[in-house]
Amino acid sequence: MELYTLRILVIDDHPLFIDGVSQVLKQLSKTVEVFKATSVQEALTLLESQNDYDLILLDLSLPDMDGFSFLRRFSAAECCIPVVVVSAEANLSYIRNALEHNVLGFVPKSLCANDMLCAFQSVLEGNQYLPDHIAQMLSDNKYTQTLSSLPPLAKHAGISIKQYAVLQLMVAGYSNQTIAQKLHRTENTVKSHVAALFQILSVSNRTECVEQARIRGLLNQH
């Protein structure tokens, strides 16, 4: 019986990394064929000649065009090949942007070989892969990423951006301790923001605070 050959395209401009990750990829199956591209253009040329790859590993920092340029071109070509970003850059905005381009995973280059192997196996099984700490950071960050500008009514009430972040998490039912963890603040800082909100909204407890915020239309009114 003929074994199925896994065909994997690695797009990275560091030959040493390509050689190293190739050794990891060869542990996925008895028959793995690794194709290498050191630029976006070289990768697109390979895809034009054959697009029957099982997996694409993509670095976002490339010499000719960045990885997002590749993702836009790749998406436009409507190739149904899972893409995993493998990068030394763990910038949350980069990761979120990549996920919006429908990549199936983000693998930091700092991962050990065994963890990388598990990540690639998971994606090949149809799952999305994110390291736990990255997934948690993205989850926490969703509460603050849209707060660069306050809703007009909240701003008019005298609520600061940090106070508004606390208010949103209060509405979601989180305790001061959990809010502190999610916003990476001390619990005392959160308590001071809660006290300020009580004063601004003329209330004496959390239930009244949330209710008054709703009555005044302070929530989700950007």
List the keywords.
222 residues; alpha/beta; 11 helices
Portion in strands? 5-15%
Total helical elements: 11
Mean pLDDT: 84
Low-confidence stretches: 143-148
Helix-strand sequence: EHEHEHEHEHHHHHHH
Topology of this structure?
Blueprint: E1 6-11, H1 15-25, E2 32-37, H2 40-49, E3 55-58, H3 67-76, E4 83-87, H4 92-100, E5 105-108, H5 113-124, H6 132-141, H7 152-157, H8 161-171, H9 176-183, H10 187-201, H11 206-215
Parallel strand pairs: 1-2, 1-3, 3-4, 4-5
Helix pairs in contact: 2-3, 8-10, 9-10, 10-11
3D architecture notes:
This protein is of the alpha/beta class. The chain is 50% helix and 11% strand. The protein contains 11 helices and 5 strands. The protein has a 5-stranded parallel β-sheet with strand order 2-1-3-4-5, with helices on both faces. The model is unreliable at 143-148 (pLDDT under 50).
Short description:
By secondary structure, this protein is α/β, with parallel strands linked by helices. The protein is 50% helix and 11% strand. It has helices at residues 15-25, 40-49, 67-76, 92-100, 113-124, 132-141, 152-157, 161-171, 176-183, 187-201, 206-215, and strands at residues 6-11, 32-37, 55-58, 83-87, 105-108.
